[in-house]
Amino acid sequence: MQSNIRYSKRYVYPFTALLGQEKMKKALLLNAVNPRLGGVLIRGEKGTAKSTAVRSLAALLPEITVIAGCPYQCDPFHPEKFCINCRTAYKLETPPLAWRQVQVVDLPVSATEDRVVGSLDFEYAVKQGGRRFEPGLLARANRGILYVDEVNLLDDHLVDLLLDAAALGVNFVEREGISYSHPAEFILVGTMNPEEGELRPQLIDRFGLCVQIEGESDPKTRVEIIKRRESFDQDPLGFLEMWSAEEEKARREIIAACRLLPEVAMDPQLEELVVQICTEALVAGHRADLVMTACARTLAALYGRREVRESDVQEAAEYVLPHRMRQAPPPPQEPEPPEPEEPDEPEDPEEEEEQQEQEQEQQQEQQQSPEMQEEQQEDQDQSPQKAPPQGAPDVVFAVGEPFPVRRISYKVKGILRRGSGRRSRGQTATKTGRYVRSAMRWERQDLAFDATLRAAAPYQKRRRRDRVAVVIESADLREKVREKRVGNFLLFAVDASGSMGAQQRMVEAKGAVLSLLLDAYQKRDRVGMVAFRGEQADVLLPPTNSVERAQKLLQELPVGGRTPLSAGLIKSYEVAKAHLFKDPDIRPLLIIISDGKANVSIGEERPLAEAVRAAEMIKDEERIKSLVVDVESSGFLSFGLARQLAEAMDAEYYKLDDLKADRLVEAVHNTLG
Amino acid sequence: MEQTIEQTVRYIYPFTALVGQENMKLALILNAINPKLAGVLIRGEKGTAKSTAVRALATLLPDNQVVAGCPFGCDPEDVAAMCSSCREQLRSGELNKTKHKMRVVELPVSATEDRVVGTLDLEEAIKKGEKRFEPGVLAEANRGILYVDEVNLLDDHIVDVLLDSAAMGVNTVEREGVSFTHPANFMLVGTMNPEEGELRPQLLDRFGLCVQIQGILEPDRRVEVIRRRVAFEEDPARFCAAWEPEQEKLRRQIIAAKKALPHVQVADRMLYLIAEIAIEMGVDGHRADLIMIKAAKTMAALQGREEVGEEDIRATADLALMHRMRRKPFQDLRLDQQKLEEIMGGHSHSHTHNSEHK
């Protein structure tokens, strides 16, 4: 390594010059001192120096002893953890030693599987004709820090790989004719902005510590932050020199704490306190107890003490519990109704997650309630109580009270899971989406070039090669497996005829749509809206991501005239079909909100018969799922026409009242199941 | 044939000939002076000269000094931000320097991930059996402008990649058998029509500045828009020539401001004003503060002042704040201009209103 700073890596803002965010800094330092803490998850709003802090930590990290030349940085003092190479090479001899700083290895969100776990060395195979393992990121991260910026955006598949390796401390590779394993013990450090979606519970639990950060609210601190950043931007080298003494001091403190740590003693009484705290917090599993004990000891070491005090345990709890508590913690000050949905929906462990989901929903409910009450009051003030007579001028009804929609989840079966946004992630059948790994098949002409090369490489010595270095045969072909996160497409077909004005039906119907829109907003679903009244159906809103516009249009939607139900169904069908043509991965969900009392037909048939025919047409298109929300008030004189319609369409059928009883989840869930 | 191609390339509607949309023009000019402003997001209806303005900006951009032959256009003076091969070269001797126009690289909405971040070089692998990195759009955009038309229609996973590299100015590639890191310090310029959906907050925050534009309503100026456009389409050569003095004037202004920028001073009072604005307006994080001060400094440099005045903050604050306001679902992205005025007013009473901003 060159010592000359000019040639060293790019300038990183010094850790010690970071102002505020004490908890985040301490959590990082604790991990630098004690790698057993299991990493840290930094959650916070954008622009709060999350990434800067992690990168600047690298400069402070102590040196470790490694076996010289080993790509896995094997620890010479722990022969039981040697990689295969070191095990054979240093069975009898003493390994040559080297010292190197603990590495921070970046895992970019665009990474593909082969580079994460390692793969066949393609160059070596072509030139030498042999199979050799080329280490990946997990190898590089052994005994270091694996850093994932925006960890909540990482693909499911990569998350699984990380979890596997993190759990075992070993990376097992079985691929491309290679069978290999090597140690992979790393500190997992991740940053995320909760606005972008939540992490899977299993992954969250892997992080030993968790801190939640916010921007500073003190003007003085803010000004100082601006000043420091500006002077760093203007003259990074000068700034680094100015802070070098501070950095050196911090480095020495870390090293001193590292030395002190093995000597730190903990009173058994305090250990009991740990257990007590964890039990009270209803933490699942035992990891919290272990991490909290380790954290308290590390804190004591950092403070230069040989014994753990009660205050250390209390402090440790602040880092260990936030992400593990079963009881919903007091909601952090989030300005928006939270978006803590799991970004994904793994197929099996659904039940485990259920509990969490419910908690989150409760939270959501609590946060939304003041708003809702307000709106409710407004509604009562504004909405007319009596039904307007048929043929009366158009009336615009207020939007009824929205209710929290429980999670709509697409459960997808089969090999080609359809792409669908934050509700679930799926593999796509088209050539779009993120390339995550390759498969041994050739169906869609989507060549995974790197994998194909690796497949062909070992045979090159034997194949006849003219003018090219690599000859590829059809057996070598590999295809890309892509994952995509696209929102779903919710198409609303709203009955805006005069009969909807009766008994506040429209107010409630609008409330129902709004609830689904709120949900769609958070999951970035695509929405569309068709309204039918008078003689015809209109596409109010072509498929768009702008839920805002849908909401506005909904508010302004007038009611009046007769009910051209068949026209509405046909129009919706056309819109959904057209959209399917554009994006075959999407799954349209048609939501029909009506009382089913068709009284206008487009053709010669009677309105009701025509509507049933249109419904059957929708039934025949398998890719379009549908759901009928019956707004007819139940009672003596109900006709049950909407139910007939639902039967003809093979759609799920729900009464508006049922939905209000918080059953919308199952409604949509079942429909898509 | 070649001639026509050259002509279409050469004649871009001159930036200075754009009518109105002063906010958008200001935001783009500020970025041309100070790339650390990290780009602009232009929000507006269709047909409001959004794309024209961005393409026109390219002709105004100053030259960059680059290492000759470097695919990333590394700055020979800035060792810290160099790619690995330039660094190697520098260690063994001098670098060949050359000048390049600042690039405007367009990222089509349909771009695939491998084209964006770069991938394994196919030809090299087949012909020589060697692994080499083939740079993508992010490499090309280093030290230039990355322009995304209809940025809100970009695929989610491409946005993730953009976020990842925009955050650190570095593109780390670990895919398709290649492992490579190179500088990717770009100015992100995007246009969008909010009617087609919002941007993710995290991406929104990556744009240094944001402007909201509307069609021009005064009939006189609308006519002027048509007249100029017709004149340009009829005879682009003549139109451009007629506007060249204006263009040259602005170009010189930009270069002068670029030189003056490092010497612009900021009084503590101004920093406090900025911090107060950020706290009172309730923005997320600290990026708004940092961008506000940079924008005000750049504005002062553009105006030929040596110290940031309140008027500079007034003229630029909304550009940095608009898209960073906390908001509820279904709420439009907008800035409480009145509140901003109140905060500014609390600091001093004797300043003229800047009527340019609504």
Describe this structure as you would to a colleague:
With 673 residues, chain A is an alpha/beta fold. Chain A folds into four domains: 139 residues, Rossmann fold; 57 residues; 249 residues, von Willebrand factor, type A domain (Rossmann fold, 3-Layer(aba) Sandwich); 59 residues, no CATH class. Chain A is built from 22 helices and 22 strands. In chain A, the strands form seven sheets. In chain A, strands 18-17-16-20-21-22 form a six-stranded mixed β-sheet, sandwiched between helices. Chain A has a five-stranded parallel β-sheet with strand order 4-7-10-1-11. In chain A, helix 9 crosses helix 10 and helix 19 packs parallel to helix 20. Chain A is globular. The N terminus of chain A is likely disordered. With 358 residues, chain B is α/β, with parallel strands linked by helices. Among the domains of chain B are: 138 residues, P-loop containing nucleotide triphosphate hydrolases (Rossmann fold), CATH 3.40.50; 81 residues, Orthogonal Bundle (Helicase, Ruva Protein, domain 3), CATH 1.10.8.80. Chain B is built from 15 helices and eleven strands. In chain B, a hairpin with a 2-residue loop joins strand 8 and strand 9. In chain B, helix 2 runs parallel beside helix 3 and helix 11 packs across helix 13. The N terminus and C terminus of chain B are likely disordered. Chains A and B meet through helix 4, helix 5, helix 9, helix 16 and helix 17 of A and helix 4, helix 5, strand 5, helix 6 and helix 8 of B.
